[in-house]
Amino acid sequence: MSGSIYGKCFTISTWGESHGEGYGVVIDGCPAGLPLDESQIQAYLKRRKPGQSKFSTPRKEEDKVRILSGVFEGKTTGTPISLIVFNENQRSSDYSDIASYYRPGHADYTYDMKYGFRDYRGGGRSSGRETISRVAAGAIASAILKELGITVYAYTKSIGPVTIEYQKCRKEFSMQNPLYMPDLEAAKKAEEYIMEKQAENDSVGGVIECIVTGMPPGIGEPVFDKLDAALAKAVMSIGAVKGVEIGDGFQVTTRTGSENNDPFAYDQNKRLIKLTNHAGGILGGLSDGSEIILRAAIKPTASIGRPQRTANKNNENIEIQIVGRHDPIIVPRAVVVVESMVAITLVDFLFQGMTARMDRIKEFYNLYKQ
Amino acid sequence: MSGSIYGKCFTISTWGESHGEGYGVVIDGCPAGLPLDESQIQAYLKRRKPGQSKFSTPRKEEDKVRILSGVFEGKTTGTPISLIVFNENQRSSDYSDIASYYRPGHADYTYDMKYGFRDYRGGGRSSGRETISRVAAGAIASAILKELGITVYAYTKSIGPVTIEYQKCRKEFSMQNPLYMPDLEAAKKAEEYIMEKQAENDSVGGVIECIVTGMPPGIGEPVFDKLDAALAKAVMSIGAVKGVEIGDGFQVTTRTGSENNDPFAYDQNKRLIKLTNHAGGILGGLSDGSEIILRAAIKPTASIGRPQRTANKNNENIEIQIVGRHDPIIVPRAVVVVESMVAITLVDFLFQGMTARMDRIKEFYNLYKQ
Amino acid sequence: MSGSIYGKCFTISTWGESHGEGYGVVIDGCPAGLPLDESQIQAYLKRRKPGQSKFSTPRKEEDKVRILSGVFEGKTTGTPISLIVFNENQRSSDYSDIASYYRPGHADYTYDMKYGFRDYRGGGRSSGRETISRVAAGAIASAILKELGITVYAYTKSIGPVTIEYQKCRKEFSMQNPLYMPDLEAAKKAEEYIMEKQAENDSVGGVIECIVTGMPPGIGEPVFDKLDAALAKAVMSIGAVKGVEIGDGFQVTTRTGSENNDPFAYDQNKRLIKLTNHAGGILGGLSDGSEIILRAAIKPTASIGRPQRTANKNNENIEIQIVGRHDPIIVPRAVVVVESMVAITLVDFLFQGMTARMDRIKEFYNLYKQ
Amino acid sequence: MSGSIYGKCFTISTWGESHGEGYGVVIDGCPAGLPLDESQIQAYLKRRKPGQSKFSTPRKEEDKVRILSGVFEGKTTGTPISLIVFNENQRSSDYSDIASYYRPGHADYTYDMKYGFRDYRGGGRSSGRETISRVAAGAIASAILKELGITVYAYTKSIGPVTIEYQKCRKEFSMQNPLYMPDLEAAKKAEEYIMEKQAENDSVGGVIECIVTGMPPGIGEPVFDKLDAALAKAVMSIGAVKGVEIGDGFQVTTRTGSENNDPFAYDQNKRLIKLTNHAGGILGGLSDGSEIILRAAIKPTASIGRPQRTANKNNENIEIQIVGRHDPIIVPRAVVVVESMVAITLVDFLFQGMTARMDRIKEFYNLYKQ
After folding, report:
1. pLDDT < 70 stretches in chain A
2. How confident is the model at residue D93 (pLDDT cuts 50, 70, 90)?
3. What does the cofactor field's note say (chains A, B, C, D) (predicted)?
4. Strands in chain B per DSSP E
5. What are the phi and psi torsion angles at B152 (to 5°)?
6. Considering CB atoms only, which of B4, B14, B69 is closest to C17?
7. Do you find a cis peptide bond into D207, omega within 30 degrees of 0?
8. Can you tell me whether residue C223 is helix, strand or coil?
């Protein structure tokens, strides 16, 4: 059944495989009149592009995006926007032997079980390259959020044992190191840790944190389409994510209510605020006007150079060694993917939220009565 | 916009407020021919019923369910099943003053922002009583899973600092203590911890773990409706949940690939198994045939007897003290809610999974050609 | 799979069978702040109630509606609205023999094929009484449309050979005769025709026309969710409807383009109008600001007193005679059902239409920024 | 809001404009293991291609389709199938002046109202070329139906006053004349009629009939997603369609129940059949095993060479004359579009129908248990 379509009002439909013709996404439900050109999308894709540092696969792919529809004279028209990135530099020969066995930590076995066979070249649909489509759509969602004064910022919070605190970070540092870690000292330590594990033909994991500012309160659709529930799905749908937390997440389980509740108060400008934000900006499934905070747990790259035990299709237990160079860590390139999925979800829910009150609907249609 | 509807093939639509006429759910897409009577559903509701132990609110509610449609001569007919639980014993007078201010940790403020006003009696739609509808539907989903040999088992894994290991538990112990903790010694310690905090007019949190056995491999719909993504949404949509993990969850972030990958192997019966299960039974968003394992972080009850600072609607910062007795912990009563949301999600995805292969579809329709 | 749920933004979920406990509908996505009480809904239900004239079944049912959720202090709260009508006066014994054979023109056979068995009492889920749920929801949709200055008016356009022209009708006459025909002379002729056929133990069909005024232009979602496509589905989903036309409908097939095109022009107030309305108020799947006009073809009642040939479940060809009195015509009671389905659909699309333009979305959120 | 996505289980997402880069469709939910190559799709596209007869625009477009994803080694993989047809031979200069006014019978005005502006080149998204995406997806749906022994056949039933009877036709004649009319004598008369109107710079309409054979009984999802309701939407969503009928359609409105009911009977092979088929193969919204019959009313081409009155954007009433050659009739090229929309809808509902019975679901999963 259909599973590559996401969103109710702002809907994206993605396609593509690692060694097919390319990747793409159709965005249906993008409002008309948004200024859009390819360079805006390219800037986002650049952040997930391989071959940019010593920690990412040296395949030099351009991942050049083309807008095929939905834009006229520099603006979106309200009709579906089709984006495409043609694949280049894919050598199918590299993958010929992996057709016969199941790589640990990969989807080889489960795809075979579901579909009866699989496009084994580079993981086919289950390849991390699938996120190209997400990021391309995310760039458009971010452009919409910008018009509404909302920003989504994700960064590398931890790599292996090296963890940083958001309060001590400076956002602008994110872009100054290949790990997207906004604490340059920690980034250096993390780099050393990765190199150490890489030398052992091994890989490492980490945590991505995402912060949303400027979100109006009251966004989310109880009781199943709560904003936190939707964000959890959005982020967990990214390959390699094994956990999601909102606000203080699992830490709240050892707290008491008096420690965990965030008191409301009016500030000196008589604006209602929360004095703390353990809740991570969401109460009862609705945004509460403070920063939305979420974290994603990213597993270490499954493809490692070390010998591994596994099974093949001939009922044999074997030992394999995955050839070719793979990223020793997924985290840095996944930062923009988390940002994209959050942005897409927020746009969808902002749109859904427009029909919550009769008085506003009435005013809306009165304003635009011809 | 519509947010109280859940599921694509097996769809539930819930309604009800704490102090309205009652709660209900319409299940649309339940297959015909499933034996069903009210006692099956009542047994599930009993597990979330208040007034059963010293740790749950003493309101004595029967929460008696009625089947209003979709069942004929003891079997489901394939048409929508409407279930209703009428409210009893609700005293609106208790809640009169909370209309004027925003309780910390509750949805009072965010509902006001979204809808312009709120049914303040007992939290209205945002009350935990909303889960009655989920559990009633969950009972039916569980009956379907049982026919397919699949079991969903959730339990209290931790309460405050008291944590237990699944490997050391005996499932049957769950039902022998009011905390649904399958380690009676730990349960005793947890009980003491709760009483201590309760004496301080405070509340505590904890972790629920859920284990699914018997799930066939290949269930899930990449790339957005991955099984783990869907389960994350299902569980995060339950009030009070602040984090979700699959398999080893956040622990994987400090592991290496060689530690985290689960090797495949054939066992002595030539059945393919995984030698470890760090992945928690899901690879590439598809079930892999091993146990599915997930955990939910439950925050401490927001309603506490202690004085708390907050703001009212007259632009004043005030101190409040919430009267009435509230559960000092949400965890035990939420166990069956987690089980229900997982069961509903699994049924939906098992149904979705039936169209994955052309050969099976063909065989299906050949079998039933008249 | 789920099929009793309708609408994307304004979503209704219906349930109930002819001889079950009752009928109901859950409306999810109704905006907060709409004044609503049971009498408004009852007024709509009255128009489809049986036992009101010599042409409708003499079963005296009250069809009394209750609001179970979603309304607080006389206003909708934005949360799901659950409506219920308990069945009364259902005698299951009347239907015992129809369990064994397939009534011509009914869903007996097809339900057996789909579900394996059926609730045969009074047609079960396939009974015309199912429209109670639609009309109850339609009453709420109509209340929303009224706030936006939009009216939906349906009437009996033809009964057998007796046809009337909208231009010659006076709306207020609709309510003055049991056939909802706004031309009293024609109504009299139609009445005679029905009585003639009724005397022969036979039944008759007819056409319902529906006119929408006050609809803003630009509503509809190309290319699949065009407004005309959505209306066609809405109306065709009503039992007994065998055809749907928009504007001049099938008549256009023998016209030329120059005859059929509606010229645009500015009127003396410089408002853009269409000089004719062959298109029925929809161009390119979007409302064009003129009256929306659609017609539904209603088949003659399938239950007739005459002897009919059919087959039973014992592989025998038999002759049956359906006992009990049935409406000799469906049309008059279906008028309010057509109105309801059109109203529900329009509300859903008005809500969908709010996200079509970036400038309006921006203005919307600026207006309501706290 | 999203409106270019169609189907629940077999979902298509289309994009493209008349003078953009091209047209495409992403098919999500196509089962794995279906043999598929570009030539199968090209054969369908050929039937709607322009420039093939004197009655279609002389633009010579190749409309060459490419499969970009979802197919591996000649078979579908179960992942999204992306199809693209690049535009060629589009001269935007031809359309420069239509930017300033609203063509009668077109979507120019309504698109402006909805989106604030429009891609005016060749009608942009509202162009009939949009059906390329539908037909490409329809080819795949038809391939699935073929595997299940189901055929969908549409043909030109009438052009202006020239009407034919299905009973007198021979299917194979359809392909032997440019009008897809399976009665060669009638086709000749229709041709003359078209030429006559074309000489007057005018256009003509007609009726398309579609017949489905081999459909198993019990397919459809009451009460809103009835098969006839879904087909009505599918067909009405095609531009230029103004009416849809199932079975005898509007004719039933002047019939009596005894004339209109189709008697059931066992044939000599003890198979249950209907002795007549006024219902058009659908009872209670479910397929009944006999032929499904539907008709679509197609309006005359809106673009005509004759002078027409209309309004421009400067508040002026003007007279226009549309230059360039346009098809004098839409019907023949729409035949394959109707077939496609019906095929897509049937596949979607066959997939939906797989979860109707618990016993079959159980058997399904037992069969495929590893």
Report:
1. 51-52, 57-61, 89-96, 370
2. low
3. Reduced FMN (FMNH(2)).
4. 5-6, 11-16, 22-28, 65-67, 71-72, 75-76, 81-86, 151-159, 162-163, 206-213, 241-246, 264-266, 272-274, 282-283, 286-287, 292-298, 307-311, 317-321
5. -115, 125
6. B69
7. no
8. coil
Alpha-carbon separation of residue A309 from A113, A121, A319, B262 (angstroms): 20, 21, 4, 9
Nearest CB neighbour to B33, from listed D78, D351, D359 = D359
Q: Which residues contact B256 (CB under 8 A, 6 or more apart)?
A: A197, A200, A202, A203, A204, A300, A304
Mutate to test the interface with A, among B25, B110, B215, B221 (most CBs of A within 10 A): B110
Contact residues for D219 (Cβ-Cβ < 8 A; gap 6+): C114, D227, D286, D287, D346, D349, D350, D353
CATH number for C34: 3.60.150.10
ipTM over 0.85: yes
Q: Considering chain D, what is the average pLDDT of its residues?
A: 94
Taking an 8 Å cut-off on Cβ atoms, the answer to whether D229 and C233 are in contact is: yes
- A311-349: pLDDT as tens digits: 999 999 999 998 877 899 999 999 999 999 999 999 999
pLDDT at B52 over 80: no
Number of domains in chain D: 1
Q: Which residues pair with residue C76 across a beta bridge?
A: C71
CA–CA distance from B307 to each of B202, B322, C287, D362 (Å)?
Answer: 10, 8, 57, 55
Interface-testing mutation among A71, A82, A290, A358, with chain C (most C C-beta atoms within 10 A): A358
Phi and psi for D98 in degrees, rounded to 5?
A: -70, -10
Query: Across residues D225-235, what is the average pLDDT?
Result: 98
In single-letter form, the type of residue at position A37 comes to D
CA pair distance A353, A349, nearest whole angstrom: 6
Q: Could you tell me where the beta strands, DSSP code E, fall in chain C?
A: 5-6, 11-16, 22-28, 65-67, 71-72, 75-76, 81-86, 151-159, 162-163, 206-213, 241-246, 264-266, 272-274, 282-283, 286-287, 292-298, 307-311, 317-321
pLDDT of residue C310: 97
Query: Scanning every residue of chain B, which has its alpha carbon at the shortest distance from the alpha carbon of A243?
Result: B245
Known binding-site positions of A for NADP(+): 48, 54
Residue D241 Cα, gap to closest chain B Cα (Å) = 30
Tell me the per-residue pLDDT of D202-213, one tens digit each, with 9 for 90 and over: 999 999 999 999
Residue A56 lies in domain: 5-367
Task: Please tell me which of the candidates B237, B242, B283 has its beta carbon nearest to residue A110.
Answer: B283
- Over the stretch A303-312, which tens digit does the pLDDT of each residue have? 999 999 999 9
Task: Give the gap in angstroms from C-alpha B340 to the nearest C-alpha of chain A.
Answer: 13
**For residue C116, what are the CA distances in angstroms to B76, C119, C318, D349, D362?**
11, 11, 22, 18, 14
Check if the beta carbon of residue D349 is closer than 8 Å to that of residue D220: yes
- φ and ψ at residue D296, rounded to 5 degrees: -125, 135
- Quickly state the pLDDT bin for B171 (edges 50, 70, 90): confident
Q: Are D74 and B217 in contact (CB under 8 A)?
A: no
Determine, for residues C24 and B82 on separate chains, whether the beta-carbon distance falls below 8 Å: yes
Q: Which residue is closest to A216 within chain B, CA to CA?
A: B113
Checking if the pLDDT of C51 tops 70, the result is no
What's the N-to-C CA distance of chain C in angstroms? 43
Surface-to-core class of residue B175, CB atoms within 10 Å of its CB (0-12 exposed, 13-18 middle, 19+ buried): exposed
3-state secondary structure at position D171: helix
- Closest Cβ opposite residue B78 in set C26, C114, C370: C114
The answer to whether D105 is annotated as binding is: no
For chain C, percent helix, then strand, then coil, each to nearest 5?
35, 25, 40
**Among B210, C242, B226, which residue's Cα sits nearest to residue D247?**
C242
Q: Find where tokens 């007897």 sit.
A: B305
Asked if B2 and C2 come within 8 Å (Cβ–Cβ), the reply is no
Q: Do A78 and C31 touch (CB under 8 A)?
A: no
